[in-house]
Amino acid sequence: xxxAVQTKTILRSLAGETLPTPPIWMMRQAxxxxxxxxxxxxxxxxxxxxxxxxxxAAEVTLQPIRRYGFDAAILFADILLVxxxxxxxxxxxxxxxxRLSTITSQSDFDVLKPVEAIHDTLNPIYETVxxxxxxLPAETTLIGFAGAPWxxxxxxxxxxxxxxxxxxxxxxxxxxxxxEALLERxxxxxxxxxxxxxxxxxxxxKIFDSWAGSLKGDAFQKYAVAPCAExxxxxxxxxxxxxxxxxxxxxxxGYVGFHAATGVDCVALDNSVSPDWAAAHVxxxxxxxxxxxxxxxxxxxxxLVDETRAIVKAFSNGPHIFNLGHGITPDADxxxxxxxxxxxxAG
Length: 347
Ligand code: CP3
What we know:
Layout: H1 4-7, H2 9-14, H3 35-44, H4 47-51, H5 54-68, E1 72-74, H6 81-85, E2 90-93, E3 97-100, H7 106-110, H8 118-135, E4 141-147, H9 149-158, H10 166-174, H11 176-200, E5 204-209, H12 217-238, E6 244-248, H13 258-262, E7 266-268, H14 275-281, E8 287-292, H15 296-299, H16 301-314, E9 320-324, H17 334-346
Parallel strand pairs: 1-4, 4-5, 5-6, 6-7, 7-8, 8-9
Antiparallel strand pairs: 2-3
Helix pairs in contact: 3-5, 5-8, 8-11, 9-10, 9-11, 10-11, 11-12, 16-17
Bound molecules: coproporphyrinogen III.
């Protein structure tokens, strides 16, 4: 008899199996392109209230599973809940994005809470995970996640998203001791946060390093590779059977060797790298995830079909999980998601 692990396609790919059809899920699959998401978000009041309401957060996580039958569900939450749990102020400005209190001096850092305190804020997230494990179909894998320390630090330092992560680079050049202390606090909090998600029922965890691409050379090694390795090593010591997906977005050549340097089971690829190049240089070291441009979910048509087929074909000789190269955008057409899934599953 097969156990549950072997019947979940995503877990099979993450264990290194090459499947005839890649399993599929989509970054930001619960999001504003879906009318049912917008309705539940309105019911919750605002985005953060939705994240901290376990019943409604579970509901929006399940919506894309019901509509499309994705092979994985990703916990509905946000990478910026960890800064909030560490004591940063966090709010979202409609049409603009997140805002946080900034950390630019030792005194800003000194008011942050200790790592053990994060669960006081994050307990509702673990409740969402528990509900999902009860309610998800037996074949659907539940993915938990957190932001990578560098990406989370860029928001904590600047107090908002920035095009070039300038304030974070300025701090790491101007006050490396403070920058590294912040990174260490986030790293330790992330290990505890992901451990709690796993204890609650997450079957896989993903580490989102959305701004890894702005770290070059030695800085990429120190602030993208090393923290991801530290988190992965700590999780593997506690939960050896839980696969980890790393996403050093826009790492380019930095994707090569990322599996071995960090211990992750799968490297997620953005769409700036070609599937043929990534198959030759990254997938040869382990499972990869990706990497259709999310713009196809807006434009659709034959180009979507052709590019989806090309990605499936390029990665067909090794373990692969189909996904977008970044999150789906609010202007996407839900019909194009259906077309992508049908194209992948038609083989
Ligand atoms: O993928 C999923 O469906 C799971 C949930 C999820 C969200 N954010 C929900 C969300 C995940 C995995 C994230 C990760 C996240 N959050 C990242 C890393 C991945 C990436 O996109 O690069 C980052 C950088 C954030 C921070 C963040 N959250 C920003 C910059 C924004 C505003 C930009 C935007 O898209 O509006 C958010 C808001 C956010 N997080 C939304 C969702 C569904 C939109 C909120 C809304 O409903 O208004």
